[in-house]
Amino acid sequence: MSELLPRPFVFLRHGETFFNRAYLIAGSPDVPLTPLGESQARDVGIVLGQQPWSHVAVSTMFRARKTARLALPDSELNFYAGLRERHWGELEKTTIQDPMPYFETPEGGEAWADFQGRVVDSLNELLTRFECPLVVAHSGIFRVICNVTQGHPYGARIGNVAPVWCQPPGSEHEHWQLTPWQA
């Protein structure tokens, strides 16, 4: 299993999309935000904009780029292809399963090991270069973060635009802590 460098960061999932609302797997399609998703992004920006981020890393996908632009209109945004959502192949545009078959490779899709590898590589590149960056991406990216820090990708779905403080092991705790972030 890949490991994240023990450096803190904040993770933010993009705003609501029509796929999220319909409980469908979006994956690689470049879907837009709903009006609610745009509003969510502007609202979270009130809090995020008060923080002097060392770096704002954003998935190259439209829904993440739009969320970051609406939330942080005055910030420099930096785009990373390695933070793109997983390609779910034949499962894209189908109903989200419970539990999701994370470790299976869907027909025409991206293998979990490949997906996790590119995500961890991208995050470690950021963590090597920046102190406490903000990462704006997708629920699949958060599943990778959970897998490498908690030992599994399962659990409650991360909410749209609900910032998560990703804190490495340290003097206060033995394991990574993933908790709601507050300025």
UniProtKB/TrEMBL annotation:
It comes from the Bacteria. GO terms for biological process: negative regulation of glycolytic process; regulation of pentose-phosphate shunt. InterPro entries: His_Pase_superF_clade-1 (IPR013078), His_PPase_superfam (IPR029033), Phosphoglycerate_Mutase (IPR051695). GO terms for cellular component: cytosol. Its EC number is 3.1.3.73. Gene3D superfamilies: Phosphoglycerate mutase-like. The keyword Hydrolase applies. Substrate binds at R13, H14, G15, E16, T17, F18, F19, N20, R63. PANTHER family: FRUCTOSE-2,6-BISPHOSPHATASE TIGAR (PTHR46517). This is Adenosylcobalamin/alpha-ribazole phosphatase. It comes from Kushneria phyllosphaerae. The lineage of its organism: Bacteria, Pseudomonadati, Pseudomonadota, Gammaproteobacteria, Oceanospirillales.
